[in-house]
Design a protein that fits this description.
Layout: E1 6-9, H1 15-26, E2 31-36, H2 48-51, E3 61-62, H3 65-69, E4 74-77, H4 81-94, E5 97-100, H5 107-111, H6 114-117, E6 121-124, H7 130-145, E7 151-158, H8 168-180, H9 185-188, E8 189-190, E9 205-211, E10 217-225, E11 228-236, H10 240-253, E12 259-261, H11 263-266
Parallel strand pairs: 1-2, 1-4, 2-3, 4-5, 5-6, 6-12, 7-9, 8-9
Antiparallel strand pairs: 7-10, 10-11
Helix pairs in contact: 1-10, 7-8
């Protein structure tokens, strides 16, 4: 349907890229306006449907970002930090909504998105599922209700091909816990334990990353005190939840003024 918003998907050959493409093509509320891959990739020049092992979709995989963005209303981007920064600059120039699900971005890289957000809408989240964003709210409230007698540990599990740790979602949960405690994650994060580390520091928020098999995503926030534990948990079994969230973010973002937003804004939970 060409009267619906046109969406570009970056990183077309990746697991998430293919899921996003399928979801956009199946939607009645948007259409696939383009797909991008890095220069030299085998898929460039192929019809995306054929490249993904199916029937022709009428959209050719391109490596020409500026040209493809010019034909779209929005871009969904689950790639890598350096690529995302480049896409943000081009999305701002084209005036298209930029929905970012890329994880592993440094504080400096995130700060560099601000200039692009002055020109267009950026919706960035380490996780776009409704359940995870509700978990963030619960984590913030529980952390605020409990004192530092309760140690906080964020435990995340993902498939063996994930390249960053802790996951973007785990860091979001850690930030929510820190906010609940009235501090910042940078001040209390304990992201690495190996060897003789000494006793746990009171008030620290710890992280444990598990990698194995084809785990889509599991996140636990554990509050542990002498004699009791509270565990908040979210388990993802299908990447479609992230694709649904990303499409929801696009449709919401098309109605907003330029600026930086997250999924709590999209879901009305901020």
């Amino acid at each position: 349907m060409t009267d619906t918003p046109g969406i570009v998907v970056t990183g077309a050959s990746g697991r998430m890229g293919q899921m996003l493409i399928r979801h956009v093509m199946a939607s009645d509320h948007a259409h696939l306006a383009g797909v991008l891959e890095r220069p030299g990739h085998d898929w460039v020049g192929q019809d995306i449907g054929v490249a993904m092992g199916g029937a022709k979709a009428g959209v050719v995989v391109s490596d020409q970002t500026e040209q493809v963005f010019a034909q779209a209303d929005a871009v969904i981007d689950f790639t890598a930090p350096a690529a995302t920064l480049a896409f943000a600059e081009m999305a701002a120039q084209a005036g298209v909504v930029h929905v970012i699900g890329t994880t592993g971005m440094s504080d400096d890289q995130i700060a560099r998105l601000a200039s692009a957000a002055r020109e267009t809408v950026i919706v960035r989240a380490g996780n776009m599922s409704l359940g995870v964003n509700l978990l963030m709210q619960l984590t913030r409230k529980v952390a605020a209700a409990l004192d530092e007698d309760f140690d906080i540990e964020v435990i995340e599990s993902h498939h063996n091909q994930k390249v960053d740790a802790p996951s973007g979602t785990a860091l979001m949960l850690g930030e929510a816990a820190a906010e609940g405690r009235g501090t910042t994650l940078a001040e209390v994060a304990d992201r690495g334990r190996d060897g003789i580390t000494g006793a746990r520091k009171r008030g620290d928020i710890g992280f444990t990353a598990i990698r194995g098999g084809d785990i889509v995503g599991e996140h636990d926030v554990m509050f542990a005190a002498p004699g009791e534990r509270i565990v908040l948990r979210h388990v993802a079994t299908d990447r479609a939840i992230y694709a649904r969230g990303a499409l929801k973010a696009v449709l919401w973002g098309l109605k907003q003024a330029p600026g930086e937003y997250d999924m709590l804004d999209v879901l009305g939970l901020s």
